[in-house]
Design a protein that fits this description.
Blueprint: E1 2-5, E2 12-15, E3 21-25, H1 28-34, E4 39-45, E5 49-51, E6 58-64, E7 67-72, E8 78-83, E9 89-93, E10 107-109
Parallel strand pairs: 3-10
Antiparallel strand pairs: 1-2, 2-5, 3-4, 4-9, 6-7, 7-8, 8-9
The protein binds zinc ion (ZN) (2 copies).
The site of one zinc ion (ZN) has 6 residues, from α1.
């Protein structure tokens, strides 16, 4: 069982299944929302994801008509994203997942929008937008 929580601990969740997709997103929205060089996402099946806390502090932000992002409105932690183009999956922010669960090969997306002050130092595949 994969577990995770937001920084303040009001939002907790479990994933009963595997991480099927593992990407670092360098788009400007992820960079702003994560306050970081990129956001890392674990793609999991929706039916395998379950909140184990109340969800009254989980707020949705529509960063684009095709993308809803859910975050804790107390501490600001990003929890997950849900793309209309990929309705079967949640893309859970890896930073709120505990430990180091098994995951597939990482890759970088939206590298064309990468922060100019950050250099990618690994050999993982890179895509200017999405693969
Ligand atoms: Zn929180
Ligand atoms: Zn992104």
């Amino acid at each position: 069982m994969i577990k995770g929580k937001c920084e303040c601990g009001k939002v907790t969740f479990e994933i009963d299944g595997e991480i099927e997709d593992f990407s670092h997103c360098h788009c400007s929205q992820c960079r702003r929302m994560h306050g970081a060089a990129f956001g890392t996402f674990a793609g999991v099946k929706i039916e395998n994801f379950k909140y184990t806390s109340d969800t009254d502090t989980v707020t949705a932000y529509e960063s684009a008509p095709s993308n809803k992002r859910y975050f804790c409105n107390v501490c600001g932690s990003n929890i997950l994203g849900h793309l209309i183009s990929d309705p079967e999956r949640y893309y859970v922010a890896m930073g709120v997942i505990d430990g180091n669960p098994e995951h597939p090969q990482e890759y970088h997306i939206w590298v064309g929008s990468k922060a100019p002050w950050y250099t990618i130092h690994d050999d993982a595949p890179q895509y200017a937008e999405e693969p």
